[in-house]
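Predict the assembly for these two chains.
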Amino acid sequence: MKYKRDMVSIFMCGVFILSLLMDSFMIVMENRISPMQHISAKQSLGSSYALIWGCLIILVLLVLWKDKSEKKNFITGIWASICLGGCIFFAGLATNNLMVGHTSTYRVTFGVGIYLIMIASYSIIVKCNEFINKSWKKKLTTFLGIFIIVFLVASGWLNKMSIMTEYFTRQDKFNQVFWEHLNISLLVVITSIIIGLPVGYLCYRYKILDMIISGILNVVRSIPAIALIILMVGPLSLLKEIPVLNSIGISSFGATPVFCALFLYSIFQVINSLRGALMTIDRDYIKAAKAMGMTNIMIMFKVQIPLVLPVLVSGIRVAMISTFTGASLGTMVGFGGLGTFIRMGDSSAIALDLILLGAIPIMIMIFITDLVFSRLSRWVKMRMTGVEYDNRYELTN
Amino acid sequence: MIVFKDVVKSYNGVIAVDKLNLTIEQGELCILLGLSGCGKSTSLNMVNKLIEADSGSIYINGKNINEFKDEDLRRNIGYAVQSTALFPHMTVSQNISIVPKLLKWKKEKIQSRVEELLELVGLDVKSYMGKYPNQLSGGEAQRVGVARALAADPEILLMDEPFGALDPINRANIQNEFLRLQEKLHKTIIFVTHDMGEAMKMGDKIALMGKGKLLSYGTPKQLLMEDVNSFVKDFMGADSYINMLERYLVKEYVLPDNSNKVLPTISEKSSLKEGFSTMINHSVDKLQVVDQSGKVLGVLRVDAILNILNEEYVRNEKIS
């Protein structure tokens, strides 16, 4: 089959070129709320301008040179990954240049150009990965750039950027809300698993219970998250009058309504996936297990649970991710969490950095959860069927 | 010995099993034969109490099955189904060891039993022990299913169309192997099928069922000759005589080769039925019989086959 030129990668190189020529490589502001000024790459990089052009030219040559072979695509992918990390490096360089002679209130942040370069590089990595079969190679191309970025951030290379400035000035608050967010998310998911698993199993056994619980949860699930949290405030403000409940900390705002709403969403996921998975187990297995003389409890532990485990892991993954996201809505009712930063940045004077400071940690947590649970789900499937899923056949998410 | 006494089972007013009275002797392979919905699977499942009879009783070796605890009863009866129902999350060895583990056998005993059974069903022990069911082909899975049913060495085996899902070649092979196994083990087996040929080939006795009732019961030859009712005759069909030929092996009817003509060949291990078909296919009245290595052993003549059919007919005329 004749190799069709990878037009996407070529287009992305074009995007890269555009971002080096356009006006908005970096953005500067006198202080946090003054209007943005766009600075081009040439201006911000000064003497390093030629260097970034060098990287781009190598990338263009590699993209034009590569064909279907795994090796060529691997090399191109690695270089694109280095460009991905590299553009953050150049951003840091640019920041240092631009901050010269200005006070600490001067803000420098990414401009459109930087984002375009990141998108372009990542797209090229993805396209190259299509031609690569070995999974370790794919992982290397994807994660090399990310490693470079993480290393740069951790070593303080970007410390002069506005987003890092915001972080350092608010470090204590950031830590506080981060732990609040993480804690409530984990608490919600763990309690919903502990309660949801037995309830899910009972829903499978007893139809009446199934109808009641599914009925309630389906209604609850259709209510948007914010609305549900606010809805919780009403009944909780009545409940908090009861002295017993008050003493253990139940109140009508803060953590309680958030917990209740997120708990309902999460437990729906757990019950639904358990119940659904149990129902799809082939009846023949249960029949054979019975015919061999297993008691009901043995059947549950030896046959049903192992067979539903993959689906269950997947359901818990969804519950975790939606809880992480939902917790950020807690600011509406006075709960902290990373939503605080998002809200701060969303006031009349939009401060993108604060919004990012709130959103990026959530994205990282979700990414890590997805990674961990995908691994877990694959490991469980391998234990169950003895087959290691070939990457080509596995659907992500 | 298994005895059904006036067993009745109905679902929502529809009678599935209608006053079944049946006796299966020790060491016999009894086939429950009939169309879909005639009550044969239901009857089978009542023996190990997967289905409870509405009225009537079932006795195993003189004891009513209700006197046993459900689990104890089932752990001493082997069960094999069409879909094999091998647990996908357990290896072949773990699947086979299920009932022995329930009976609390010692680890070494279970291990040696698994190896013994895999050899018995014709699977290489080392390579199949650790395989998962989804790595097995249809025939291999069925063999493991049979091994699993035999694991605790039960006296009774219940089999619900176990070879139905296999292609004709595999089915024929596994049927032959199973018959050889039964000759060694002499289990009391209830075997459900809707395949006439299978019934004729495998059964010591055939119980023909229709609409929940037992229509006929006897040896395959008896059933062929019986004049009970038109349903039986229609069900048996004209080719049942041909199917009977499956019980005879070519190698017992080989004659020395006189001519030097080029003839189509047939393996000595095939049945006379295949021999007959091959002769018809090639429009010949003789076949060359070869053994596994291809060595010519002699010829098979069509008269041998016709004689057998005639013998059977005459002999059975005297019985009926």
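Chain B has two domains: 2-243, 248-319. The radius of gyration of chain B is 22 Å.
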